[in-house]
Write a structure and sequence with these properties.
570 residues; alpha+beta; 7-stranded mixed beta sheet; 9 helices; 33 strands; globular; binds fe (ii) ion
């Protein structure tokens, strides 16, 4: 048995290593599916597109389920026939399967099939649609240096495996050098397999168009027309985070500017906690000249208090100061980027005011961006290929906060120790679990009542048998904040029954008095209850005194003597 247990993980390990070795090395071959991809656009909690490539055309089917089946096709609950087409200027075929009606935060396992050739099983996880914290990875410019791109894809996979709460990867464009070259996209798609986690989980892509894609159809064929063919601007809503993908390779004014303003307005109506945008050519570049985005989009970002903007194209790592009205302003918008997923890095022009000073950063550095997003904080980290953090900043939400208020015990309440009571509180925002503590000294020290409790906004509590007039209860999110503390209350010990009088202990047996000892203080010998007395006064129930009783006895004695005397005289 022990040998069998050892054999299983060894087998899995070998399988995993074999599967990994196959990723990123295969090119399309006949109808065998390769280059599996998943794309997120507007509604990643409920929709996704699964895509793959084959060399030859054929009927393509997606088998999918919320349970893994290890590739046993008959066991998948759902199948769908997919849309296929030939990549522009190539002899290879793409296959797109658009899934709708998905459940949020759910794993979807799938197998791809074209003309009876099937893939192994993969899966992806839909985004959540609530306020839970999550992560998003981002970056741009994976073109030109394939070896470095593959290194960066290994970095992406390592981060993905370290952080399973990563929802997707937002790519800022310039995937390849020549956007019309299927050969280069073919290599890119093969290299993208390296981002698949070792357990088969695929990292969904939120794609934007770069200048090297230009107006190439291939970008839409690879990524399933994100935001519409050639348009490629759309908003991805993940919980309370609005992430707007824009297209710098078409007019940034007109319809696209109007779209951006409408999205920003809707984000405010939806009470978005953070607003970001990604696009390729920067408004605040660290190397090149500003794009049209500076004039068309930046005023809208500032008007609607966008938080963090992701730019690419410059081939540096930069973080601007917060910007408003063309100046550093702590209420302003921060721009980060500018593309380090493979392309050789340039030297930033550091005399530009927006990348100078302690609140900015600029370097020549390949990098992946990792965003930690919650309702209240957005933490930005730029991570080097060796997984070290080379720059970071944390933003606080301008619009959202989590709240927690303890309602009972109420201020001035008197609780009876040992009694059952109820702690109640109300929360706002994202507070999934709480720790509950109590104090006898107004909160100077705390003792645990419960930890990691699901936030039902109430908890039963047996009041401890400790008297205090400075009691408090604290309820705190297990994340550390927010927290609420009750008003001061009293714990009263129950009133005691009066103690019975103390009985003297019985004397030892050898000290007990002998009832026959006339010299002792013995109790009188008890009289039987039915004993008949010879005392006539007593016998007749006389209510007389001892003297009267004595006199009666003497008279009786004289009477008896008299009777005896009279008998002798006769
Ligand atoms: Fe570019």
């Amino acid at each position: 048995m022990a040998r069998a247990l050892l054999f299983v993980p060894l087998t899995l390990s070998l399988f995993s290593a074999t599967a990994r070795a196959q990723l990123g090395t295969d090119s399309p071959d006949s109808t065998r599916p390769v280059q599996w991809r998943v794309m997120f656009t507007e509604d990643p909690a409920h929709r996704a597109v699964v895509a793959w490539t084959t060399e030859d055309d054929g009927v393509s089917t997606l088998y999918w389920d919320t349970q893994p089946h290890g590739g046993a096709l008959a066991e998948y609950a759902n199948t769908m026939e997919c849309t296929s087409g030939r990549y522009s200027l190539s002899l290879h075929y793409y296959h797109h399967c658009s899934l709708t009606g998905l459940a949020p935060a759910t794993s979807y396992y799938f197998v791809t099939e074209t003309e009876n050739d099937v893939s192994r099983e993969f899966y992806f996880v839909t985004a959540h649609d609530d306020g839970r914290p999550f992560k998003l990875m981002a970056g741009g410019d994976s073109r030109s240096d394939r070896d470095q791109r593959r290194i960066m894809n290994d970095t992406i996979r390592a981060l993905f495996e370290q952080h399973p709460d990563v929802v997707a990867f937002a790519h800022g464009g310039d995937y390849i050098e020549m956007g019309y070259s299927f050969g280069q996209f073919n290599e890119w798609m093969t290299d993208n397999e390296l981002t698949i986690a070792s357990d088969g989980r695929i990292l969904p892509i939120i794609a934007s168009r770069g200048n090297h894609e230009g107006s190439s159809d291939l970008m839409d064929q690879v990524f399933a027309e994100p935001g519409g063919a050639g348009t490629n601007y759309y908003t991805t809503v993940i919980g309370d985070y609005w992430f707007i993908t824009l297209n710098t390779e078409t007019s940034m004014a007109g319809d696209q500017r109007l779209f951006l303003e409408q999205q920003l307005q809707q984000a405010h109506l939806a009470e978005a906690c953070f607003i970001s945008a990604q696009y390729h050519r920067p408004a605040f570049p660290g190397v090149k000249d500003p794009s049209e985005a500076r004039a068309e989009w930046v005023p809208l970002f500032e008007q609607y208090d966008a938080d963090l903007i992701l730019e690419s194209d410059g081939h540096i790592l930069k973080r601007t100061v917060p910007i408003r009205n063309e100046a550093e302003d702590p209420t302003g918008v921060i721009y980060v980027g500018e593309g380090g997923l493979g392309v050789s890095q340039r030297t930033p022009v550091t005399d530009r005011w927006f990348i100078q000073g302690p609140n900015a950063f600029a370097a020549s550095q390949h990098h992946v961006i990792l965003l930690d997003v919650s309702r209240t904080e957005l933490a930005y980290r730029a991570i080097a290929p060796d997984l070290t953090v080379v720059d970071s900043v944390t933003l606080t939400s301008r619009r959202c906060m989590n709240t927690l208020e303890v309602k009972t015990p109420a201020q001035g309440a008197v609780l009876e120790s040992g009694a059952d009571s109820e702690i109640t509180w109300i929360t706002g925002g994202w507070v999934p679990t709480v720790d509950v503590d109590w104090s006898t000294d107004d909160g100077s020290t705390w003792m645990s009542i419960a930890s990691g409790l699901a936030n039902a906004e109430r908890a039963e509590w047996t009041v401890p048998e400790v008297a205090t007039t400075t009691g408090r209860v604290r309820v705190r999110s297990t994340a550390g904040a927010p927290e609420g503390v009750s008003g001061g209350f009293t714990i009263a010990l129950p009133e005691k029954e009066p103690d019975p009088p103390e009985m003297p202990p019985p004397p030892p047996p050898d000290e007990q008095p002998n009832p026959m000892d006339m010299n002792g203080a013995a109790d009188p010998i008890p009289q039987p209850e039915n004993e008949v007395t010879t005392d006539p006064a007593v016998a007749e129930g006389c209510a007389c005194t001892e003297t009267e009783r004595g006199a009666g006895s003497i008279l009786g004695l004289f009477g008896i003597v008299g009777l005896l005397f009279l008998r002798r005289r006769r």
